[in-house]
Write a structure and sequence with these properties.
Elements lengths: L2 H4 L2 H4 L7 H4 L28 H11 L6 E4 L3 H11 L6 E6 L4 H8 L3 E6 L8 H6 L5 E7 L11 H10 L3 E5 L21 E6 L12 E4 L2 H10 L7 H13 L4 H19 L4 E4 L6 E6 L2 H10 L5 E2 L9 E5 L3 H17 L2
Parallel strand pairs: 2-3, 2-4, 4-5, 5-6
Antiparallel strand pairs: 1-7, 6-7, 8-9, 9-11, 10-11
Helix pairs in contact: 4-10, 5-6, 11-13
The protein binds pyridoxal-5'-phosphate (PLP).
Length: 347
């Protein structure tokens, strides 16, 4: 893979913004170079543009060198930056699977980039041959999501590998739900695949959605590109500090994870007892995709009872499906109770 060639020409030749902290990052006692206020510490100073302290911690947790880590304002930021770096608007395209996470298409549309969508098989398995067949000379990236949203299943590792090995552009593998999954992450394989970008997030298993921290793991070359085009101070000080404090506690809190996985199985069992439930799809994530009779009516019934689930019934291959996040045991019991009331109405 030739990264230079893959980049948009204007990005390949870009002179990035150079901040005061880029030009001097050593120790000093008097900083008069950034037009900051001397008052109201610690909020008066610009935060570290490359979040080194936080990256060192994440490096230990994920076993990835600091040079191979990019941190963004949620995973949405690296997704958008990848389009801006590699896809010439109105010319280049990306290939993705369907159904999948909606943000890839939104970022593509914002960047005036076509998405060539390849349907998963009816059991939601990935067909690597079909994905590769969809590629043409203007395809810069392939987006894969495993475990996939909204289907909940992990994609087959051999199919994923086949795509990474055969495609000459970048493969973006979104592993937002990997902590809920038995299959292993592709992170340990990163060094063997210079065209692979892996996305992780603190928004799901790590229970920090409000702090907005997404991670991209990739070759040093790719990470440099993302750093060059990001906003200089994309992660604010409060997020850097709060995340660091939370991460020094533990991995994704082991007790929360255990409860969520037990609840996922218990919920599937309970849902299968309901007359109107046609199918509960197997899940490798913290949600269940459930095929039901009359999804819209059930959705409205639950809203009236102040319970919100996600109506996915208009999504390709998800006809009549609701997507239900695994909540706390109390929240889940509340949902199941309401669904029994609905079931009794139908009789
Ligand atoms: C929730 C989710 C994310 C996380 O997005 P953030 O911007 O990091 O909160 C990423 N990818 C998928 C597939 C998701 O479902």
């Amino acid at each position: 893979m030739n990264l230079e060639k893959l980049l948009r020409p204007n990005i390949a030749s870009l002179t990035p913004y150079s901040s005061a902290r880029d030009e001097f990052s050593g120790e000093a006692s008097v900083f008069l170079d950034a037009n900051e206020s001397p008052y109201n510490g610690p909020f008066n100073r610009y935060p570290d543009p490359l979040q080194l302290e936080l990256k060192k911690r994440i490096s230990v947790i994920k076993n990835v060198p600091v040079e191979n880590i990019f941190l963004g304002n949620g995973s949405d930021e690296p997704i958008d930056l990848l389009f801006r770096a590699f896809c010439e608007p109105g010319k280049d395209n990306v290939v993705s699977i369907a159904p999948t996470y909606g943000m890839y298409k939104v970022c593509a549309d914002i960047n005036n980039t076509e998405v060539i969508s390849v349907p998963l098989r009816t059991n939601f398995d990935l067909d690597s041959i079909e994905v590769l067949r969809a590629v043409n000379e203007n395809t810069k990236m392939i987006f894969l999501c495993s475990p996939n949203n909204p289907t909940g299943n992990a994609l087959d590792a051999y199919e994923i590998k086949h795509i990474i090995e055969k495609f000459e552009g970048l493969v973006i593998l979104d592993e937002a739900y990997i902590d809920f999954c038995k299959d292993k992450s592709f992170v340990p394989d990163l060094a063997s695949y210079p065209n692979l970008v892996i996305l992780h997030t603190l928004s799901k298993a790590w229970a920090m959605a409000a702090l907005r921290l997404g991670m991209a793991f990739a070759s040093e070359e790719i990470i440099k590109v993302l750093n060059t085009i990001k906003y200089p101070y994309n992660i604010n000080l409060l997020t850097q500090k709060k995340v660091l404090a939370q991460l020094s506690k533990q991995k994704p809190n082991a007790k929360w994870m255990r409860t969520t996985l037990l609840e996922r199985e218990a919920m599937a069992t309970e849902l299968n007892k309901l007359q109107f439930v046609l199918k509960v799809y197997p899940s490798d994530a913290n949600f269940l995709l459930v095929q039901v009779e009359q999804p819209k009516k059930i959705y409205e019934f639950l809203v009236d009872r102040k319970i919100i689930v996600r109506d996915r019934s208009n999504v390709l291959l998800c006809e009549n499906c609701l997507r239900i996040s695994i909540g706390s045991p109390e929240e889940n019991a509340n949902l199941i109770k309401s669904l029994h009331i609905w079931d009794d109405y139908q009789k």
